[in-house]
Amino acid sequence: MSAQSHRLARLESYLDRSEPAPTLLKMLVGVQLAGFREDAGFSQDQAAKALGFSGAKLSRIESGKGRRPPAESDVRALLDLYGTDAYESSVLLRLLQRAGEPGWWQRYDKRLMPEWFERLVGLQEAAATIRTFEIQYVPGLLQTPAYTQAVVQRGLPNAPAAEVRRRVELRTRRAELLLRDDAPQLWAVLDESVLLRVLGGKDVMREQLAHLIAMAERPHVTVQVVPLDVTNASAPAIPITYLRFDGLDLPDVVYLEHIRSANFLEDRDETEEYRFALDRLADEALKPRETVELLRATMESRYS
Prior knowledge:
Distance between the termini: 63 Å
Number of strands: 6
Largest sheet: 6 strands, mixed
Strand content: 5-15%
CATH architecture of the largest domain: 2-Layer Sandwich
């Protein structure tokens, strides 16, 4: 069995998952196709030209970034061109079929789930590790519904009540990711100002801090706070989400959100810069146990 076949054998477990993972599967299909191409000795331009594809089309297939998975006919044509054996082709085509199954988040309308945000949610659902740094709000995956409502109402003061409820429902559903048996590791670093910024009133803040404490006690969740008196902290001026997909031949992804769009970085030189920045922040932050003590003290002193 070839090295590529061994890699595909590891991916067969994704065929039996109860919850679809279309974002992950599109990426996996693309990565495997790129591996088959390289093993067959084709450059991307040569393969595209041989099949009458544009370079952009093949690049999109191999990156797995399209909103929909590639057409089965295109994938079959690529597999035939590369001389892929029957077992490898069978596994990849079954992965492609599962990639077409909608994830729960794809049932929301595009107003709540624009393409860039849909991609983030899909990547979070598939990640083995999620690292995040926040300077203004509690990270979305750790928010309570009442706190989320306050965040939405602050950001969209003119939104109808029905839209606010739908946005709260969406974020609450996202947070269920951390309650799964196969939940990813979450490592969240917060600026202390997040704890002091009152959203929704004292009762909402007290509930939110209590929830942070409860989540921090879970073995797969780490929470750290950078105190305000650490004046030389190397904190970037924007929130960061860093996603890692262990053992799947996929690049790490950095997500940087703007008001109406987002950037996804996958180049290793760029993502490593952000990983180093998160490492420095974690070193400058309170240890997890000290963070829990600060959360409790803040609850009692500010929100009792």
